[in-house]
Amino acid sequence: MAASKEQMEIFTFMGFLQDWDHGTKTVRHGILNDFINMNKGKTGPELELQFAQGASLFLTRLTAWLRLTYMVGTCVTEQLQAIGVFLSATSGHRYLVEVLEVGGLLTFLEILRLKQLREDNKQEALKLLQIIANAGRKYKELICESYGVRNVAECLANSKSEKTQEQAQILLELLAQGNPKYQLQVYKGLIALLPCTSPKVQQLALHTLRTLQAVVKIVHLCIVEPLLNILRTIHYEVQYEAIELIKTLLNYEVRQALLEGIVARLNPSMSDIKNRPKILDDESTANLAESIPLFVQQAAAGKVIGMVIQESAEIAEELLQLRVVHCLMIAMGNMEHADSQKQASLALEHLVRTFPVVEEHVRKAMGETLYELYMLKKYQNKPRYQ
Predict the structure, then answer these.
(1) Neighbour count for residue 335 (Cβ, 10 Å)
(2) How close are the terminal C-alpha atoms of the chain, in Å?
(3) What average pLDDT does this structure show over 184-213?
(4) What is the pLDDT of residue 5?
(5) CB-CB contact of 260 with 251 (8 Å)
(6) How many CB atoms lie within 10 A of CB 71?
(7) What is the pTM of this model?
(8) CB-side exposure of 370: number of CA atoms within 13 Å?
(9) Spatial CA neighbour of 73 closest among 113, 116, 41
(10) C-alpha angle 91/94/98, rounded to 5°?
(11) What is the separation of C-alpha 34 from the centre of its chain, rounded to a whole number of angstroms?
(12) Of the candidates 226, 230, 231, 236, which has an alpha carbon nearest to the alpha carbon of residue 257?
């Protein structure tokens, strides 16, 4: 009876393979959906039992059809999901090896690069790459050796879908953790994403950099300028991540460069604003519109200074050496941007109350009457950094 049952299972499985081999695109699409729905979450032994110890025969057909059709977008999401059933199966490590042996890794990475493919195709490819990365350090190294960091970073930068961007960010973080040989490559790839115009990409890159900083432990000077330039953003969630990363990096060797850059941004250079033909705009309106990012950056710089001087007297003293008081007073005089005035005023007040020499300098610069009015107003409105 057992032999008869086994023969029946083999016969059924061979019929299944024949249906696949002779099926049209529509037939195969239906087979894929049925397979995914019936077998998602199964273990390796359960899949072997389902397919009469021949599950690898179906997996081979899946990977072969994917390599033939992925460039034209034929059932790509369904094929990737079906392969994912095998790769995610507990005690199914051999399926992973089989997929890699036939070039599955390169196919998944290539899918990320193809502009004609849909976002859901790329999301599924990223999920498979995450499974491979989670299999261990040597698999992370294999992905990186296959230009995986570049492909994933480009996918993150070019994608218009937040779901795709988030999956790419998860993969980049995975590739850096527990992968000392290539963690610096991932770190630099994330820095390269900072000038991206997408706020979501900037937010994800900044968050991942902050998470990985404790792993990487070193900081490249090339991060300073793109990081400080992000302070021009009007997106609060991006600015928050940038400020938190700055606060983290102040504990590393780029501290001096960061502090110098922050102080410099309290006094923006209007020569950086590109001139437009006067015939196109009212000159005063055009100049104001173009200066807004600089003023936002100015306010953010004041905010950062206000935060760090409350947390560290040592940093406050270093900022004093960089003439921060002078620059804060310049920002306070910016009549075109109220937030610059507010943030600079809050930071200056803390310095005045902490350092007698600053109080003396500010009192002299403002004059007795104005100084008394300033301190009275500050007393009535206690500083809050948010």
Answers:
(1) 8
(2) 74
(3) 96
(4) 72
(5) no
(6) 14
(7) 0.88
(8) 7
(9) 116
(10) 150
(11) 35
(12) 226
